[in-house]
Amino acid sequence: LVVCDAENKDECMAALAETGLTGAEGYWLFNAEEWTRSGGWLDMLVWLDEEELGLDMRFSSPQLIDTRAEAAFRAGALENAQSIPPEAFDDEEALPAGEHDLYLYCHDGGNSFLFASMLKARGMHRVRVLLGGLQAAPSLWQNGPVPQATNSNPN
Questions:
Q1: Across the strands, what pairs with 78?
Q2: Which single residue of 16, 26, 81, 129 could bond 112 by disulfide (Cβ 3.0 to 4.6 Å)?
Q3: Rounded to whole angstroms, how far apart are CA atoms 99 and 108?
Q4: Cα(82)–Cα(88) distance, rounded to whole angstroms?
Q5: Residues 29-49: tens digit of each pLDDT
Q6: What is the Cα–Cα distance from 112 to 53, expressed in whole angstroms?
């Protein structure tokens, strides 16, 4: 089941299909104001920018999760990153064990946002997402341009 705003339904479904997640059986049109008025609870994702992630990488050892396609990860990734490509988002064994602050990134932020939402739904709340992905964080990438997968979806 996909939850999205009515005006973004087609875009959301297309974005999910691009990552290979095509098992959605439907969607629920979401209106945040109505939901909160009826007593519903909203969660949030923590976004961090290039500078924040750079400082955390310099002064601590964040658990980095690269959510791009495996080919993009093999072409180059941030130091000490673990690969969890879109096709493994539903694989419980691929998830990091224990309570850690997870720092997710991809090419443009789309896959990371999706995976972070899935992790939070599973009860993992110490999740941060690199805003805009690697393309918005050139200083984190030491070896020239950010490598991309050769397929049509660089995430």
A1: none
A2: 129
A3: 26
A4: 12
A5: 566 677 677 776 667 778 999
A6: 14
For tokens 């964040």, the residue is 62
Q: How far apart are CA 143 and CA 145, in angstroms?
A: 7
Place of tokens 């694989």: 91
Residue 14 has pLDDT above 80, yes or no: no
Q: Is this prediction's pTM over 0.70?
A: yes
Provide the greatest CA pair distance for the chain: 50
Distance CA 131, CA 49 (A): 5
Is residue 68 within 8 A of residue 107, CB to CB? The reply is yes
3-state secondary structure the chain: CEEECHHHHHHHHHHHHHCCCCCCCCEEECCHHHHHHCCCCCCCCEEECHHHHHHHHHHCCCEEEECCCHHHHHHCCCCCCEECCHHHCCCHHHCCCCCCCEEEECCCCHHHHHHHHHHHHCCCCCEEEECCCHHHCHHHCCCCCCCCCCCCCCC
